[in-house]
Amino acid sequence: MNPAAIEIKNCTKCFRRTAVVKDLCLSVEPGTVYGLAGDNGAGKTTTIKMMLGMLRANSGSIRVLGFDPWDNGVELKKNIGYVSENRELYDWMTVTEIIWFNSQFYETWDETLAAETLKSMELDPKKKIKQLSRGMRAKVCLMLALSHRPDLLILDEASSGLDPLVRREILEHIITLIQSEGRTVFFSSHQIDEVERVSDRVGILCEGDLLRDESLDDIKATSKIIRVAWNSDMPDHTKFENVTCIEESGREKAYFTDSFSDELLQQFKQLNPAMIDVQDLKLEEIVVETIRAQKKRRTASV
Amino acid sequence: MVDMLKQFKAILWKQYRQALSMIIGASVIGVIIAWVWAYKNNYPFDAFYDWQGILGFISALLIILPIASVESEKKTLGFLAAKPTSSNRICILELISAYFFAFIPLIISILVFLFMCKVLRTREEFITHQYSVIQLFQTYFSYSASSLFCFGLFFFFISTCTTNRIRSFSMAFVCFVGGAIFLEYMGRATQQYYSGWIKNLYTLMVIYSLNVNPKTIITLFSLLLLPISFLAFRFQMTRSFYRWNRYALVFVVIIIAITSVFAITIPNRNITFIGVTQNSLDEHAKPLIYRIQGSELAKTDHIRQDYAVRQNYYISVEGDNSRGAYKPDDQRFVSLSIKKLHVTNEPEIIFDKSIIDCFGEDIIKKHNLDIENSVFSNRDDWHIHVAGDRGALFGRMRYRPKGLPYDDDGNPIEQKAPPNSEWLFAGSFSLEDKPVFTPLKKLTLNIHGVNGKETRIINCVEPGLFPYQELNITKTILSEYKRRNKSAEKEVDKIYLEDANMIVSAFSIYNFSNSSKEKFLDQYNETRLYRIDYERDRTEYLWPIITCYDFSKPDNIIMSCGIEYKETLPTIRLRLNYYSPYASPDYFAIDDDKLYYVFPVDDGDMLVVSDISDPTNIREIVRRKIHKSLFPNNWRMIDHNFKLKINNGKLIISNILGVYIYEIQTDYSLKPLARKTHLLRYNRIEDTQLKNDILTVYGSENSITQYTLDSSVYKFEPSNHKYFKIDGDGRFTLPSKSEFFIP
Question: Complex ipTM, two decimals?
Answer without folding.
Answer: 0.81
